[in-house]
Amino acid sequence: MDLVTPVFWVFAGWSVVSAVLCITRRNPISSALWLVSTMFALAGIYVLLDAQFIAAVQVIVYAGAIMVLFLFVIMLLNVGDAPREWRRWPVGLLGVGLAAVLGAQLMMLGGYGRQRLADEFSTQPAPVNPALVFPEGMASAAAVAERGVVGAVAEPLFTAYLIPFEITSVLLLTAVIGAVVLAKKKL
Amino acid sequence: MTPEMKGFLLFSSLKMLAVFTMTMVGVALMTLMERKVAGWIQNRPGPNRVGPTGLLQPVADGIKNFIKEETTPAAANRSLYTIAPAITFIPAMMLMAVIPLAAPLPLAVDFTLPVLGRFVYTGDLPMVVADLPIGFLFILAFSSLGVYGVALAGWASNSKYSLLGGLRASAQMISYEVALGLSLVPILLLSGNVAFSEIIRNQQEGLWYIAPLFLSFFVFLISGFAETNRLPFDLPEAEAELVAGYHSEYSAMKFSLFMIAEFAHILTISAMVTTLFFGGWDIPFTSWDEQGGVAQTLATHLAFFAKTFFWIFFVMWIRWTLPRFRYDQLMSLGWKVMLPLALVYIVVIAGAIWALDVLAPTISPTARAGALFLLNLPIGWGVFFFLDRGRIVQGVGQRAVPIRAGAEG
């Protein structure tokens, strides 16, 4: 029996439900907590993809650090419940429309035609597109088995993608310096 | 379902049950131990009325907490107020799942149960619920989730003392989490892996990491004290300022869940110090414990228990020895001493490991660890000399405040 598929559906359902609750709750603290729950479900999906390191970092950085700061700010500012504004329904309608357009674009980008959708929903095993399958030896499971969870991420990060990595860190540093300059009246 | 999978699920469930029971019973006994140690240090008997020499005191406390009245503040946010103790409790219970408690047990079983069918398990049974490849990252991730329970408890109670306590606790835990995480990077550099089983194997081949990575141990221990909100860093519940901090408004079993989580964190930090720096279940000066067998598993478990017990005792010993820090001292210790120290130490250790690999590539693991230990001696001496001068950890009381003429009276 394949144990991965049911576990995937649990995490997938969990993340979608949490994400919907996150944007529909009126209390900002509840919204933030549902966002944490979404992060956590995503970490579970990363584990299923053999990316345990990414999953751990997702929980440590997003759920453990960034969202705690969000909560901090919400608590300190004492933000109240968002008012229910029925007059703004055209904006909601626009959002639904844009979501539909985005969904349609993603469907086209992924090559989901009528036949493909029928394959997805049928119980027959669908023909696999060879372009979408990892070649032998390149799959993440093989990299993890060879170098450990940290090495599998660190090796490409510090060889092939060194420049983007460093540029990102400079960007973050700039943001930190900007925050300090804005917060301090006198340096 | 294959018999092998059924055997795996059976043994995993048994291990989960065993570890959960051990944690809960251990926490109950630790509450008694703390009061006994306090009594011993303060030269008084401690609790000795319930059961023989007070051994049943945790049972009495538990029954009391179950039958006490639960109160909820009138203006509290009810759902969050109720769920906050659970958010603290659940991550604390999950932490012990990844720590290896003994040497793997070689097993070959094949039996059939009436309804469930055939169970097969062959090979080494690791004495850990889940030997995750992410190892101590799992513990960092889940212990950081404990902050939510504390912050929410403080906020949802809708009381000023609770809110201040919750904010203090979360600020403190976030600050020291950084130093805690960075103090573990040298372990990753030296062992090349984050999985606990690999770290223990590396320590068996070389020296226990307390020798080559002494300053990591120092930073880890202090940050661990701050993470568990224990004295000398128990500012979130400083009774002289904040009544009882974030759990001021809690009573009965909800309050008890916070206490259980705190003691479970102490247990986890002690077990982590044991595993990361004192060889885990390794018995020193012999390789008998690595051969595998029932006797070896039992003996290594005793070794693990003895080491962890010592560190639990150490935590309590510190509590009754050192006074509480002031909040500004706590923050400056975290950000101005522990964080730079951990960062500099990563650079030094990385350089030393690289130099050893280049200069002496064929050196044995023990000699490699010994060379790093020699490097640690002068650095450790310098750090303690520097800290002892009180140069960095000083509060506003010791700062030179210019006094305007005529403003004294």
Account of the protein in words:
The complex is a heterodimer of chains A (187) and B (409). Chain A folds into 3 domains: 81 residues, Up-down Bundle (Four Helix Bundle (Hemerythrin (Met), subunit A)); 44 residues, no CATH class; 52 residues. Helices cover 74% and strands 0% of the residues of chain A. Chain A is built from 7 helices and no strands. Helix content of chain B is 63%, strand content 4%. Chain B contains 13 helices and 2 strands. In chain B, strand 1 and strand 2 form a beta hairpin. In chain B, helix 1 packs parallel to helix 11, helix 2 crosses helix 10 and helix 5 runs parallel beside helix 12. Classes of the chains: A mainly alpha (187), B mainly alpha (409).
Low-confidence spans of chain B: none
Tally the beta strands of chain B.
2
Question: Helix content range of the residues of chain B, please?
Answer: 55-70%
Q: Which CATH top level class of the largest domain in chain A fits?
A: Mainly Alpha
Under CATH, the topology of the largest domain in chain A can be stated as Four Helix Bundle (Hemerythrin (Met), subunit A)
Shape of chain A: globular
The fourth-level CATH homologous superfamily of the largest domain in chain A is NADH-ubiquinone/plastoquinone oxidoreductase chain 6, subunit NuoJ
Q: Write down the overall mean pLDDT of chain A.
A: 80
Oligomer category: heterodimer
Number of strand elements of chain A: 0
Evaluate the radius of gyration of chain A. 21 Å
Report how far the terminal alpha carbons of chain B are from each other: 86 Å
Number of helices of chain A: 7
Can you give keywords for this protein?
heterodimer; A: 187 residues; Four Helix Bundle (Hemerythrin (Met), subunit A); 3 domains; 7 helices; B: 409 residues; mainly alpha; two-stranded antiparallel sheet
In short:
Chain A has 187 residues and is mainly alpha-helical. Chain A has helices at 4-24, 28-48, 52-77, 89-109, 114-121, 140-158, 162-183.
